[in-house]
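Protocol step 6 of 9: fold each sequence in the batch and record its structure tokens directly after the sequence line. For illustration, a two-sequence batch is reproduced in full.

Sequence one:
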Amino acid sequence: MKIVVLAGGLSPERNVSLSTGTGVCRALRKRGHKAVLVDMFLGLERFAGKIEEIFDAPDGLCSNVAIEKTAPDLDAVRASRADKSASKFGPGVLDACRAADIVFLGLHGECGEDGRVQATFDLLGIPYTGAGYLSSGMAMDKAITKTVMERVGVRTAPWREVCYTEEDIPRLVEELEVPCAVKVINGGSSLGLSLPDTKEELEKALHEMLRYGNRILVEKKLHGRELTVGVLGNDYLPAVEIIPQNNSAYFDYVAKYQAGGSLEVCPAPITEEQWREMGEATLKLYHGLGLSAYARADFILDEEGRAWCLEINTLPGMTSASLLPKEAAAVGMSYEDLCERIVEESLRVRREGR
């Protein structure tokens, strides 16, 4: 098949996305597909050939991308685009996607997981991987996801949604209890996340979150083991336990993407009952949001052995070292197998009109 692996974009998770896209593209090419990596925002400015020739480009236009300790400078990315267009799609991107049999969405964060790209592709009749536009948008919004968790009976921490400005911060510092977790409503890769223990830390966090927007979710801070469970098709996979290293208090951006940042154990050393509980909770939330093809849910397992769901990721990381590929490997599925299975599941879903 001709496959465009769409990555990059303008999310703070841009470099994570490019790393995912590069891994997926090379895996699909190993399987004989004519896969090509396309940066959603920068597009094909540097490709001199015709659109139909892109699928024969050497190494699928892949390049090695390092994930730095800090998020990329998106203003610099914008300035680097020659046409200076305000469009989120770079030159030639939509033409390349129309020419493909399917687009593998290697995007992460707001640029790709909030449903807008999926809605565009639905309108243009372009098949793509993962969930549809509505369920993607719902899952990206942490407040909506929390509401669905409560509706379908998935245990989650007490929470509240807050819309605020700088002027509201003194009042919120008084109102909100600490310790707590403060999250931007549509963040990912642990960007836009703070875990204040004191009122002073809470005040600092509220100022910091305004960098990402004026809507946040504040929930009770949970203590316990960090685990995640993936879904492929309609089945859940073995759980992974994430143990942050190098003095990381939790699975933050550095712990996720820097060498030695975390120890990831799969299958997780938990009981069968605990795994089943998290797996069934993941499926409840997956179906409650109307997700499809694949996803990954994150949990805290407290000292009493109770699993608390944090969120669900509709386009989880797909580098060869990411969590979902580790889960697939635990059931004998290679990285290349997983990438191809996601394509097959997604084509089935699109044929069904979802």
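Sequence two, same batch, same settings:
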Amino acid sequence: MPISPSIIAAISVPATSDTNTSEAYLAQKHNLLGQYNSLEHLVVDGEESLDKSTYNGLTFHMRRLRAAIAEALWRKEVFVSTTIIDEFVFHEVQRQPGQVVGAVMASLAQTTVHQAGFVIYPLNGFGLELPPLRRSSDTLLPYAVFKSLGMAVSAQSNSFETASARMSLLAKRLGIKGRMPVNDLHHYTVPSRLRWFTNNPLMMIKLTSHTGGMFENQFIYTLKIRIASSLLTMLTAIANDKGYAAVPLSSSARVNNFSTLDIDHYLIGEAVRPGSRPLELRRVPMNLGAKDLARLSDLSVNLSTELLARSDMKRATSRLSKALATIESGYRDSVFIDGTSTSEGRLYARIVTALDWYRQSFGSRSTDDEAIVNLAVAFETLLADGYESKPNDRMRRRVRICLRGRPGVADYAEAVYTVMRARGAIVHNGTTLQSTDINKARAAFALCVEHIADVLPNLPAGTTKPMETLLNDPV
């Protein structure tokens, strides 16, 4: 659902004893701020011009109100950075005594914070099935749009004009109102090191984000990339399990592929002007290690838009998108926003980590043995609450519980069991002769994630063994 200015104004920031105390303190000190013409002026000169207690009190209580406002906005997926909120809080504290939070929210509703932008990130190894040479097709497309998760992917173009036109098209398909800033795209990509914009497959993610600093909101960008990439791998696994595998020789990953792993930046587009005017484009350095960058972009899967259009794959896409959105919001709220170590937060952290291991089982540079180990670790991270004896039997049993009532549940459970046994042989012997059906095990993981997301609302607060509780499977 699009976010409107009226919805921004209606977002409730709960009044607590802490925020009430901060509102009262700042109301008392309101007149002091008249001598400062900006927040930067207060920060730079205030420490010397004010007594230490007053300076610390002003900064502490403004930060407290900022945190309350940011939390309320972020829970509604309006990712306004703290540096921007700081400026609004300072202005309203300076302008009037009291009711700062309400005034900030009213002011934000008059800006473009409700307007969505995007993140563009390169992929490596990803392919979409293309029509046979010199033939056109209305069903095999060089891009795919997943509106339910606010994400789209495109095959590599090897042309700036084609890539920028395709990004404009995908932005419109995702409901992003602002126009693609083509001149800025050219400035940031063609003369620079961003060869990936034309050479690599691209992922576009729609999100409502506004930042004031270079690395702000990078947490949410990387989280959304991790979630979106997980959907692509899961759909690949489901399609393969159904016998719908894309034809490898017709994949864009094999045609004019000059993909690069020289990935140091990503692109973000933010709406700084109302309506359909061009978005403001930024080229942002990735504040991650080289290995993390490679893992984030490495997505060696092939999909077919023709197969994704089948009714059963549409249903699978809808179910998995809903499950991953539930996991994303739970992780964001309990791990990042809450910030404290709770059983709920630890559970969501484990689930997202399990997704990371799962994606690595599709890595283009992974051996078969490495793929098996990564997938086995993904299952244990997802379905266990910690180290317990007989993990292979436990994984097989819990897969059966997650997939109860589905056709072929015994085959899925057995495929996972053989993967777990093979992992043990690899870890202890360096390799394995164990035969595995890794494709079916990958599909089983996707279906388990779908089930767990469905039962997460049933988790009692404070439970020490959440997966045991959710699956009603005491060890």
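Proceed to step 7 once all outputs are recorded. Observation for sequence two: The chain has a mean pLDDT of 88.
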